[in-house]
């Protein structure tokens, strides 16, 4: 089914899971790749800085060695000698042993030390035996150093030394009185192999490397020994000079990135290079891993989503099938899944509903059978009622004959009694549908009192206080007369006295219409009143099944109460208030005329 619940649940789960995986995967990959790129750039910068720092420390350590020679009194005295007071090439045994030897012993990387004074003083010492030594070439080299304006009182590094494979660390010796007046030159010939050993120990991955060039583009170090001492290509050198302290690419070097930084101490520029493929390999591995993990997670999540959807849809399908069977009239109960979750609670509620519906249907069926039986009995009662309608007509005719004879015999008492009785009989057995008004009930009371006058052998007037506005309001037939009759029978058990009164009054509120019948008779004791009120508050079925005896006079009250509820509903009827020896007040509660439709009793 295209619109099945399992399909919707599965699609929603797939969308949520795929969206989550894509969002997390792409975001994680993007952040991780950026971090890796930043780490590689930071690593490349850090390696270059470390190499420059170690190189500068290595060279600066020899600057301290020159200080021990500068402060030597022997060197100062030799430089202060008058010009041409010593031979052209003179080796001082004192200077060699007292000044040069400690420096050569502590720094075996120094192959040669020398001091050349402008006064003709010369002193040299060697850490190795050099044969043959080109004295003329050395003098020419020294003369060039004297003429070089870049060499001053600070230690200067010359990458092309007097000896092959050596660096020259040289500085001019200033006069005591003026730092701008120089007396000589002091220099070291330092083996460059020591620096090569330091540089070779620096690793930049499997394919990474670095090289060092001086300020003129000469390569001082390169992992390819054949390129050491050669000049860097002009375009490459210009690119290096223009892109210091940043990542760049060199022409003719595809797939590689470079980073360069210049040393403020030595003036050399270190250029580090890494392969782009090697640099991006972790990012590529991360992308591949993210993709594989995402696919595996998606497959697993889709499987779990399918199982989860089935766990929801399967009980729903069981309920759906059960409802179909129930709709066909087969009361089907769904078995529990055993998960004890909300679905089991729903199935339990459904099974309870089916059980109750089955019971209700059976009850309705039984009620329908009873209704059919009652209908047959009612039809029988109506047939009997039609038969009995003949008897009242005979009774009315007989009463009219009695009235005629009473007139002939001039007996007004018999005439009044029979006429009142005839009216009351006609009123009580009416079967038409016209509404019974308060005025009709009061008229019925009038004829009743006419008969009671002859029965009690005295006049008695009822105090009717009902407003004329209420006379046309509807009420149930034969409700006031039984209450008044009940007063004569039970409220005045020892006869009527002048102090006895019966009051009939009425009033309304927003929804209901109230009529009261109040007397000042003997009243009802508390226990009997409680029992009576309890029976009035019970339902009609309970009152019909109640076989407990009641006090005398309660039968008429219950009869009126039942008939009012049959017409207007269970919320209406009688309520009784009474005090023993004081009197009794019976209140009839009915709906107002605007909210009711009176049905005949």
From TrEMBL:
Task: Provide the alphabetized UniProt keywords.
Answer: ATP-binding, Cell membrane, Kinase, Membrane, Nucleotide-binding, Phosphoprotein, Transferase, Transmembrane, Transmembrane helix, Two-component regulatory system
How this chain sits in the membrane, per its record, is: Multi-pass membrane protein
The subcellular localization recorded is: Cell membrane
The leader peptide range reads none
Residue ranges of the TM segments:
9-30
- Domain of life from the UniProt record: Bacteria
User: What InterPro entries is this protein classified in?
Assistant: Bact_2-comp_sensor_kinase, dCache_1, HAMP_dom, HATPase_C_sf, HATPase_dom, Sig_transdc_His_kin_internal
Please report the name of this protein according to its UniProt entry. Answer: HAMP domain-containing protein
Family annotation (CDD domains): HAMP (cd06225), PDC2_MCP_like (cd12912)
Q: Report the residue ranges that make up the HAMP domain in this protein.
A: 310-362
What Pfam families does the database record attribute to this sequence?
dCache_1, HAMP, HATPase_c, His_kinase
Q: What species does this protein belong to?
A: Paenibacillus germinis
